[in-house]
Specification:
single chain, alpha+beta, 9 helices, three-stranded antiparallel sheet, 17 strands, globular, eight-stranded antiparallel sheet
Length: 286
């Protein structure tokens, strides 16, 4: 652990930023402003966000410059997973009860439109043909971790760990050892991995659960929560990539994604069996 730490809640999850030197008030204010801007743009839980406006009516919406990389990556994942990783999943999550009021009361599902049926994304401009409930949860948190890390880099903070409840980005001379939480028993880990000057993101079906068998990773084809994969861990250079791949691994094989992206991974099946890349092998206990 680094000597200076800030903990706070943001975008519906707990954050911890550890640094080797205290953050100046200017840097701390920049981080807060970055989070607020991101939330005001992308949160489907806020009626005043751009995403909230797009959910109410079709139209043309102008997003900030950072949307280009985010939605370009989403489109790639959408194509690689045959539409199973989609930013349009928000409508299905809301009908399942994971809505702005956290009703947690599921309603009847209906199929999602395809990307091209519902919207056109050109540079920073979103044009929708119908109201759409966009959810960037598959990669957005990792992307926000990257944005905060860039603020720390610009401030010349040489050693830090940004941890958004399992989405981690590290910089420094000393490696950071991270435990891989067992989704079947959260008091245990199934192994550990060293992370240094890179990102580690995790996703699991035991997080954000409600009702009978409901969790936050929905398959738009079956209109049900995923079942085969229960947890994934991914190491990549950036949080955006690690977070998005951690979600995509619930739907497609690592081999398919490795044709396009460079990453290391573990994924756990419902029966407890594991698939993993070579880098994770020595640190696994099971």
């Amino acid at each position: 652990m680094l000597p200076h730490s800030r903990q706070f809640d943001a975008i519906g999850t707990k954050w911890r930023i550890e640094t080797n030197t205290p953050l100046t008030p200017v840097v701390a204010a920049s981080i807060s402003a970055c989070i607020e801007s991101f939330d005001h743009t992308y949160s489907r839980f806020r009626s005043d966000s751009l995403v909230g406006q797009a959910a109410r009516q079709a139209g043309t919406y102008h997003f900030p410059d950072d949307s280009v990389a985010l939605f370009k990556f989403y489109r790639t994942l959408y194509d690689l997973t045959d539409g199973q990783v989609t930013p349009l999943i928000g409508a299905m999550l809301e009908r399942a009860g994971y809505d702005a009021s956290y009703s947690l009361s599921p309603n009847k599902q209906s199929p999602l439109p395809t990307w091209d049926e519902a919207m056109i994304w050109q540079h920073t401009t979103l044009t929708t043909m119908q109201p759409v409930v966009i959810d960037v949860g598959a990669a957005g948190k990792g992307y926000l971790v990257d944005k905060i890390s860039h603020i720390l880099d610009a401030a010349e903070v040489s050693d830090y760990v940004v941890d958004a409840s399992g989405d981690i980005r590290h910089r420094g001379k000393q490696e950071n050892i991270v435990g891989l939480e067992n989704p079947f028993n959260t008091s245990e880990v199934i192994g550990s991995i060293s992370v240094q000057n890179e990102s580690l993101c995790a996703s699991a079906t035991n997080r954000r659960t409600w009702g009978k068998g409901l969790h936050h990773i929905f398959d738009p084809r079956t209109m049900l929560p995923t079942q085969e994969i229960v947890a994934t861990w991914v190491i990549a250079k950036e949080g955006l990539l690690a977070d998005g791949i951690a979600t995509a691994l619930f739907f497609v094989t690592p081999e398919r994604l490795l044709e396009t992206f460079k990453f290391e991974y573990v994924r756990m099946h419902y029966n407890g069996s594991l698939e993993y890349s070579l880098r994770f092998k020595e640190g696994l206990f099971v």
